[in-house]
C-alpha cells in the first residue's frame, strides 16, 4: 500500500510530465487527481523560515534590562524594603526615583526570581511542632479514645457528654453527662471506666482540651499506669473514633433535639450506649456488635452467621454468584492508621 507522501510524489511527477507534454495544469491535475493548489505550491516552495524567537525573548526598545531587574531585586530585599509587600516597596522606590517601569513589571520581575509568595517573616512559634500520633491496636483494651461533646437542654442550657470507647471493638467503656467540662469530671470518667471494665488501657488518646491536659488527669493516668496520647492542635482528624461516635449518637433517629433536664440526658445516654454496645451492627467491625468483639465472641457469631448464609445458599443458589462467606473482624484499627471502613454509623 502506497503511503500518502509516496502517492503525492508520484502524482507530482505525473502532473509534471503531462504539463511538459503540453497539457494545462488544470487538466493535468484533474486527470491525476491532484489538487492544483498542491501543484502550484510545488512549483513555488516557500522560502525557509529563519530561526523563530519566542515572543518573550524578543528584543523591544522598552524591555527592562537584566541589570535593571537585578537592581530592583537588590533594593526589594534590602533592609529598607525587605519587610514590605511588592506593591508598597515599588511605590516607595518610585517616589524615591529608583523605578522606571510599571508595578505590573515589578511583579513580573519578582515572579521571575521566585519571590512572589508571602514576603512576611514566618514565625515558627515557641513550641516545637507536634508529631502526628500514629497508634495501632489489634485487640480490645490496648487503645481507648475519649472526648467531650455538647448536648442541648431547655432554652439556652447545655450539658457535656463525656465518652470513652475502645478503638478496636468500638465499645463505649465509659460515659457521663454533666453540666460543665472540668478536669475533676474527666478524672472520674477515667477512674470509673477502669473500675467497671476491671482493666486499664495501654494508651488513652484524647484531643487537646483543658480537661485532657489538666494536672489531675495526668496524675491519675500516671497512677494507673496509662500512657496518654494527644491530637495535634487544630487537626480535626487526629481523634476520629470519638468524633465518629458523637456523630452516630446525634444522627440517631430517636436522638432528642433538646433534653428536658440533666436527668433526662443521663437516662437517655445510658440506655443508648447499652443498646449500642449490645445490638449495633458496626460496619467497621464487618457488622458484628461492639460487645461481641470486645468480649471475644466473634468466632461463635461468625459460625452462626455462616450457618445462616449456608442455609440461604442451599435454598436459593441461583441468587448468588458464589457461595457467601461471613468475614471476620478487621485485624487492626488505630489513630492515623489505614482505615477502609466508614467510622460514623449514620447510613
- Principal-axis shape equals flat
Order of helices and strands: HHHHHHEEEEHEHHEHHHHE
By secondary-structure content and strand pairing, the structural class works out as alpha/beta
Share of helix, binned = 40-55%
| CATH H-level superfamily title of the domain at 135-285 | Ribonuclease H-like superfamily/Ribonuclease H
Taking the alpha carbons of the first and last residues, their distance comes to 63 Å
The strand line-up of the biggest sheet is 4-3-2-5-6
How many beta-strand runs? 7
Radius of gyration: 38 Å
Low-confidence stretches: none
- What share of residues are in beta strands? 5-15%
CATH architecture of the domain at 135-285: 2-Layer Sandwich
Count every helix, treating DSSP H or I runs of 4 or more residues as helices: 13
CATH topology of the domain at 135-285: Nucleotidyltransferase, domain 5
Biggest β-sheet description: 5 strands, mixed
What is the CATH level 1 assignment of the domain at 135-285? Alpha Beta
Explain what you see.
The structure is a single chain. The chain is built from 13 helices and 7 strands. The protein is an alpha/beta fold and 347 residues long. Among the domains are: 40 residues; 48 residues; 151 residues, Nucleotidyltransferase, domain 5 (2-Layer Sandwich), CATH 3.30.420.10. The strands form 2 sheets. The protein has a 5-stranded mixed beta sheet with strand order 4-3-2-5-6, with helices on both faces. The longest helix has 18 residues. The radius of gyration is 38 Å and the shape is flat. The model has no long low-confidence stretch (mean pLDDT 87).
